[in-house]
Specification:
mainly alpha
Length: 102
């Protein structure tokens, strides 16, 4: 699950980089210096690139929310595990200590 989410996030970052590079090409002048958008380039940005950026931004916000939910679930589970009486051999901190000692 994490691997799939990370792969999807990597694809989103790649798409964002592609859009940013195309925007850089649109804004560069003939001599390679940055210049103001021409009208045609503005229309191209609004019609093609801006919706893609908005979609990717929403997808990244959803990914961020999923990560926050997973993190809070892990923290809650670890907190509950610390308060529930159980055998010491099953305790996460005991297993970590044994693994570090080995």
């Amino acid at each position: 699950m994490i691997k799939d989410m990370t792969g999807a996030n990597l694809e989103m970052f790649t798409e964002i980089l592609d859009v940013v590079l195309s925007l850089r090409v649109m804004t560069s002048g003939k001599d390679g210096k940055d210049t103001k958008f021409e009208f045609g380039r503005r229309v191209q940005w609004v019609v093609f690139q801006k919706p893609k950026i908005m979609k990717l931004s929403a997808a990244m916000e959803a990914y961020k929310s999923n990560l926050a939910l997973m993190l809070s679930t892990l923290i809650t589970a670890e907190s509950l595990a610390a308060h529930i009486p159980h055998r010491p051999s099953q305790c996460l901190s005991t297993r970590r200590a044994r693994a570090n000692a080995a």
